[in-house]
Amino acid sequence: MTVDPVCGKEVSATEAEASIKYDSTTYYFCSDDCMMLFEKDPENQIRTQHPLSEVQGTVVPRLPYGQQEGEFDLSIQTPGSLGIGDRVTFTKAITEDDVRKFAEATSDTNAVHLNEEFAEQTRFGRRIAHGTLVSGMISAALACLPGFTIYLSQNLEFKRPVDIGATLTASCEIIENLENDRYRLTTRIENEDEDIVIHGTATVLIDELPAY
Question: Would you say 114 and 204 are in contact if contact means Cβ atoms under 8 Å apart?
């Protein structure tokens, strides 16, 4: 068993999705996406295999993985601690590939997400992204708070459908310190017109990052 040098996933030579020979060594990858990232800068990937990411100078528990996209913005009032008003945002476009991969991964192949002719006959009049695919952007944002964030609860209200190709921004802001490293946050997602797509609240536990 070997380790994908990009994302750190264990892969075997016989089951790897892709492989490449570089400097007399064969590297195996869990996906073509990871191989493509490796090819962009192999020396750096070999030297610093699957390091944790930094967002504005803060180490967060995110790994480079495939062709993930999006931009994060972190606003912390007191570096080294979390408090009311601290927030993080994550912005990305919901692509056709996102929808197809989500449908395959979850087996949620509802025709309104995948079939144009069917979707045109629904109240939406077109294909739309999965609601839970969209809400996953909140989880992505929370993973960029300093520390190791663990979901305890989340409530959501879906306000409007999301078109495939829409650019969305997920925002999470601490509104209450519940003590014992627990926090309550507002969570919302807006489209490019600043219309609210999803809103709700979350309760999380934030541990210190483990040694890695």
Answer: no
Provide the token pair at 112.
């309104």
- Spatial separation of the C-alpha atoms in residues 135 and 168, rounded to whole Å: 10
Tens digits of residue pLDDT in 97-131:
999 999 999 999 999 999 999 999 999 999 999 99
pTM: 0.76
Q: Are 92 and 41 members of one domain? A: no
The whole-angstrom separation of Cα 142 and Cα 66 is 20
Amino acid identity, residue 173? E
Q: Do 138 and 61 sit in the same domain of this protein? A: yes
Is residue 31 domain-shared with residue 58, that is, in the same domain?
no
Nearest Cα to Cα of residue 183 among 205, 212, 162: 205
Q: Total structural domains in the chain?
A: 2
Q: Are residues 115 and 10 in the same domain?
A: no
List of residues 6+ apart from 120 with CB closer than 8 A: 126
Q: Which domain holds residue 180?
A: 51-207
**What are the tens digits of pLDDT across the range 177-197?**
998 999 999 999 999 999 999
Quick one: 60 and 41 in the same domain?
A: no
Rounded (5°) CA angle 67-69-70: 170
